[in-house]
Amino acid sequence: MTTDLFPRFAAPWIDIPAGRFFARIGGPEDGSPVLLLHGFPQSHACWHRIAPALAERHRVICLDLKGYGWSAAPEGDPRHAAYAKRTLAAEVVAVMESLGHVHFALVGHDRGARIGYRLALDEPGRIARLALLDILPTLVQWERIEANPRKPSHWHFLAEAAPGPEQAIGRNPDAYFEGLLRDWSGDGSLEAFAPAALHLYRQAWGVPERIQAFCEDYRAGATRDREADLADLAAGRRLACPTLILTGDSYLDRSTETPLAAWQRTFAPGAVAAEVTSGHFLAEENPAATLAALQAFLA
To answer: Where are the alpha helices (DSSP H) in 48-137?
Structure first.
C-alpha cells in the first residue's frame, strides 16, 4: 500500500544516541514548532487527518516513539528504565534539538500524552503549550484500576512479567490490537481508521520486538512512571505551561470525577478543558472538532 498519508511532508530518519527515530515533518520552516506524539498501539500515522491543516501555520513534527512505528525498538531492562516516560521524554528532547527546536508546543495522545506531561514536569521551560488527549495522570489511572481489581485491564495484562503477554499477543497480534481499536472506538468498529493507517499499524504490531516494546512501555507505567508521579506530587511540582485537557465523550470514566478535575487536583491546577464527540481516538474519529480545539489552543 503506497498511499501517502502526509502529502508534502518530509520523511526523515533522525539519529540520536538512543537510536534511530522516524518522523513526518511539514509546514513553514519558520513556523512555531508543534510536536505530535501518538499513543498505543499506533504510530505517527494517527495524525494524518489533522497534521496537514496544523502545518498551514506551524512547523509540525509527527514522531514515531521508541518501540512504535518505524523507530528503534531496543530490548527493555529489568528495572524498566529504557521505556520509562522520563527516558522517553529525554529522547524526544534530543530528537527535537537535533531538528533545531529547543522550545516547542506538544500535543500528545494516550502514551504520547504521558511522555508530554512528564517532559513538561521534568523540564518546565521546554514546553510552550501542552495538549493532553484523552488521558488521566498515570497515578490516578492506577488508583482507579486498583479500586476495581475484578475489572479486566490491559494495563495489568501488558505489565505482567515477560514473556507472558508477549507470547499471548504474538499468537495473533491483529486479533488482539484490532480488538482494542474496536473496543475503544466510539462505534465499536474500525471504520474510523483509514486503510493506509491501519496498514502501518499492522506492520508495526506484528513484529515481536515491538510487541515486547509495547509491554515494556506498560511495565514502566506500573513502576517507574507511577513512582515519578508520586514523587512529583509530594514535592509540589506542577505543570508550568498552558495546558489543555482534550477528551472524547465516551472513553474515560467520569463516575467519580471529570478528567479536568483529576488533572487540576494533581499536576495541572490551571488547566482548561475541551470535549469532542468521540471514542478514544479523537484525531481519527472526529478530526474536525479535534483540529478546531487544537488550533484555538495553539493560537
So the answer is: 51-54, 85-98, 111-122
Distance of CA 193 to the CA centre of its chain: 17
- Catalytic residue, from 110, 134, 225, 229: name it: 110
User: pLDDT averaged over consecutive 10-residue blocks of the chain (299 residues)?
Assistant: 82 97 98 98 98 98 98 97 98 98 98 98 97 98 92 94 98 98 98 97 97 98 98 98 98 95 98 98 98 97
C-alpha dihedral, 287 to 293 to 294 to 295, nearest 10°: 100
The reported pLDDT for the residue numbered 151 is 85
Alpha-carbon distance of 199 to 177, in angstroms, equals 13
C-alpha cell at 172: 495473533
Torsion of the alpha carbons at 91, 117, 180 and 144, rounded to the nearest 10: 130
Backbone CA torsion sign across 204, 129, 32, 193: positive
Nearest Cα neighbor of 106 from 262, 292, 246 is: 246
Which grid cell sits at 108? 500528545
Pick from 262, 228, 289: nearest CA to 87: 228
What is the Cα 83 distance to its own chain's centre?
Answer: 13
How far apart are alpha carbons 114 and 39 in whole angstroms? Answer: 9
Q: What span, in angstroms and rounded, lies between the C-alpha atoms of 87 and 80?
A: 10
CA-wise closest residue to 43 among 16, 18, 20, 62: 62
Exposed (0-12), middle (13-18) or buried (19+): which is 152, by Cβ within 10 Å? exposed
80 counts as catalytic? no
Asked if residue 289 lies in contact with residue 276, where contact means CB atoms within 8 angstroms, the answer is yes
280 is an active site residue: yes
Give phi and psi for 223, each to the nearest 5: -125, -85
Cα–Cα distance between 204 and 69 in angstroms, integer? 5
